[in-house]
Automatic annotation (TrEMBL):
Example of a GO MF term: transferase activity
Coiled-coil regions listed: none
Iron keyword on record: yes
Functional note: Responsible for the formation of the pyrimidine heterocycle in the thiamine biosynthesis pathway. Catalyzes the formation of hydroxymethylpyrimidine phosphate (HMP-P) from histidine and pyridoxal phosphate (PLP). The protein uses PLP and the active site histidine to form HMP-P, generating an inactive enzyme. The enzyme can only undergo a single turnover, which suggests it is a suicide enzyme.
Pathway terms, separated by semicolons: Cofactor biosynthesis; thiamine diphosphate biosynthesis
Organism: freshwater metagenome
Protein name: Thiamine pyrimidine synthase
Presence of the UniProt keyword Transferase in the record: yes
Family: Belongs to the NMT1/THI5 family.
Entries under InterPro entries matching the protein: NMT1/THI5 (IPR027939), SsuA/THI5 (IPR015168)
Length: 339
């Protein structure tokens, strides 16, 4: 399945590279015992390193993984890479995946278990031209979608949540060209991620309207999950638990940084990924948008709340993304933070 974050290429984020070495120190890290052997784990990202991954690289640059007895290699996926397939083939130990991709892969029999989350809110939004003042005004107009099932579900929910009729909205498949399609007038609006295309489009057209999915009736749920296979959890469950704890610490550090003081996170992203072509200004803009979404409703980072996930599960099937509600008991690891 094509990962929705492909659209982050907009705004000079066509990146490459792989994880750097652990460095630094931090008193808040989960300590490794003196007899604990170092465990190696490979983590594959969902896309090229960008603002949503800063918590991972801050944890890496502060040495939190090594202090927890872990040697973590952060890998960037190749073009068209599929996290579910990489996990199933044993080519990675952990992967960042969109929650809808996880649900659909599990529906087809994939052995995927969520061990944590990095973004605690839905990222989908309708990004509309300035003359669209509310979603129901899109009736009779054309909205761009990528072709992913979750796009149509998000558009339907947002229009319906504003009292409109989604059946009266015209749709055009535009791939991952939301920004260009809206700016050119090819479509009146497009589905995109508010932290990526939304930031890029607003920078080009400040009066852009951004209608977020969970502001129009969708439940709040974690968009991006850290995923493993049940085999990995059986064989290296203690190491994965330490990993999930350190990831929560990294995102807590980023989320706690005052606005406008994100140099450490941006520098960690650039140095840890080894990609100096990452644009600091673009990353800072995207980080300012997404940073509040690193915390759940209780202010925690890295967590998977089962009640939240059950509400999402029911909605996932209700809007037609999956045929039946995903089994939260099997999807969420019993040792995941917050579970």
């Amino acid at each position: 399945m094509v990962v929705r974050l492909t659209a982050l290429a907009v705004g000079a984020l066509v990146l490459a590279g792989c994880g750097g070495s652990d460095g630094g120190d931090d008193a808040g890290a989960t300590p490794a015992t003196s007899t604990q052997a170092t465990t190696s784990l490979n983590l594959t990202l969902d896309f090229a390193p960008n603002a949503v991954h800063t918590g991972l690289y801050v944890a890496q640059e502060r040495g939190l993984f090594s202090k927890a007895g872990l040697a973590v290699r952060i890998r960037v996926p190749g073009s068209g890479a599929d996290g579910a397939k990489l996990l199933s083939a044993g080519r990675t130990d952990l992967a960042i995946m969109d929650i809808h991709d996880v649900a659909l892969a599990r529906q087809e029999g994939a052995d995927l278990v969520a061990v944590g989350a990095i973004v605690q809110r839905p990222l989908a939004a309708v990004l509309a031209s300035p003359d669209v003042t509310r979603p129901r005004e899109l009736e009779g107009r054309t909205v761009g979608v990528t072709g992913l099932p979750s796009d149509d579900a998000a558009l339907d929910q947002i229009v319906r949540g504003d009292g409109g009729d989604p059946e009266r909205v015209k749709r055009a498949t535009i791939g991952f060209e939301a920004v260009a399609s809206v700016v050119s007038g090819k479509v009146a609006a497009a589905i995109g991620f508010w932290n990526a295309e939304g930031v890029a489009l607003t920078a080009r057209r400040p009066r852009t309207k951004v209608f977020r999915l969970d502001a129009f009736g969708a439940p709040r749920y974690p968009e991006l999950l850290v995923v493993a296979t049940s085999r990995t959890l059986r064989e290296r469950g203690d190491a994965v638990a330490r990993f999930a704890d350190v990831v929560a610490q990294g995102y807590r550090a980023v989320a706690s940084t005052p606005a406008g003081d994100d140099d450490e996170a941006v520098d960690a992203l650039r140095s840890g990924s080894g990609d100096r072509s990452i644009d600091p200004a673009t990353t800072e803009q995207q980080l300012a948008a997404v940073k509040p979404a690193f915390r759940d409703e209780q202010g925690r980072t890295g967590t998977l709340d089962r009640a939240t996930m059950r509400t999402w599960s029911a909605w996932e099937a209700q809007v037609g993304i999956t045929r039946t509600p995903p089994d939260v008991g099997e999807l969420v690891w019993s040792r995941a933070p917050g579970s």
